[in-house]
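Final report, closing paragraph on structural work. Over the funding period we assembled a curated collection of sequence-structure pairs, and we close with a single example.
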Amino acid sequence: MNEENSSDHKKTIKRIDAHYISHEIQHLFHVDKGFPFTLKELLIRPGKTVREYLTENREKYVKPIAFLVFSAVIYTLIIH
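Its predicted structure, as stored:
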């Protein structure tokens, strides 16, 4: 019964192009959400942040892979 409803609402995958990449980069720098917010929350309350990302609201946080890559770039720039 639920399978019928879920098959009707297929999510379309966006093409990765210059617009998509620029949107993702802009998304990293939002103050109320994005990279600064994710970093602050992980430093202050890591357990609650991970639980909230996994079970409740993912809109405020940066995707884990993007967070890892962006953190590595910042770390590399600071060290060199």
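Residues 6 and 12 are 13 Å apart (CA to CA). Residues 64-79 form the longest helix (16 residues). We thank the funder for supporting this effort.
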